[in-house]
Amino acid sequence: MSSISQVIAMINRLEEDGVVERYAIGGAVGATFYLEPVSTLDVAIFVVFRPEAGKSLLSLQPIFDYLTARGGVIEGEYVVIAGWPVQFLPATSPLVEEALADAVTVQVEGMPARVFTAEHLAAIALQLGRPKDKARLLLFVESGEIGTDRFKAILARHGLDNRWQEFERTFLSGAK
Amino acid sequence: MTFDLKRMIESKIALRRKLAGRPVAEKLAMLDALRERAVALREATGHMPHSAVHEAPEKYRAGQNKGKRSKR
Predict the structure, then answer these.
(1) Quick one: pLDDT at residue B64?
(2) Which end of chain B is more exposed for a tag (fewer CB within 10 A), N or C?
């Protein structure tokens, strides 16, 4: 079993034990479910937090407590599991909330792993807009993994049409 | 071996498609290997090349060599 598979197994337990309501893998590891592997140094796990009674602020502490009790090591904003720094990210935008709700379950070595859809990964990359996100978005476009209608509907719902047009002008005009 | 750029690009695309089509478990194992290599390079050179597109710029080997951080 790969180290990332061990991370996924641990995150599944985190959800099964009710520490988080729902999780989905995003970032470069999420993209690897659809594309060729691209080097990454951490694992981005998006979570829907389980609200704690009497607390209005969201806290990562229950997640950290759960994982450190099972061998995880906290380093900065990461929890290191099986050698991989894992970052837990709350849904901070309607797009990520939707991505979490629509995430799909894929079997990895007989184990379920929930991951963002290709269309949501691409839309999030467009929204973030860092160089590495643009590179990832290009990979998605070139791969043909994203369903055009579904992708464009996501862009329209989240006000990303103009950004997409700009991306097309910059990177895709003249491309086959 | 060819110096025909068009054929080289086609060949690269074909290799990427082949990699993308591998089973997910196999691709995740490749991420393990890629990360090991990236961390080793970072430790050896003290930094990542600024021109490279790479994931989150962590500056340590997680869970190992505790307290020994590589130079930026």
Answers:
(1) 52
(2) N
Q: How far is CA B37 from CA A114, B34, B44, in A?
A: 27, 5, 10
Compute the average pLDDT of residues A38-61.
84
Contact by Cβ (8 Å): A127, A161? no
Average pLDDT over every residue of B35-60: 68
CB pair distance less than 8 Å for A41 and B17:
no
Pairwise CA distance, residues A41 & B35, whole Å: 6
Q: How far apart are the first and last CA of chain B?
A: 38
Q: Give the residue from B39, B48, B55, B64 with the most A CB atoms within 10 Å of its CB, the best one to mutate.
A: B55
Portion 47-66 of A in contact with B at CB < 8 A? none
For B20, name the nearest residue in chain A, comparing CA atoms only.
Answer: A36
Question: Half-sphere exposure of residue A170, counting CA atoms within 13 Å on the CB side?
Answer: 13
- Which residues of chain A have a CB within 8 Å of the CB of B53? 131-132, 135
Task: Say if B43 is an interface residue toward chain A (CB within 8 Å).
Answer: no
CB contact under 8 A, B62 and A84: yes
H/E stretch holding A166 reads helix A161-167
Confidence band, pLDDT 50/70/90 cuts, at residue B42: confident
Name which of A34, A36, A106 to mutate to probe chain B: the one with the most chain B Cβ atoms within 10 A of its Cβ: A36
Cα–Cα distance measured from residue A6 to residue A67, given in angstroms and rounded to the nearest whole number: 13
State the complex-level ipTM: 0.90
- Name, in order, each residue with C-beta under 8 angstroms of A84's C-beta and a sequence gap of 6 or more: A3, A4, A7, A42, A43, B35, B62
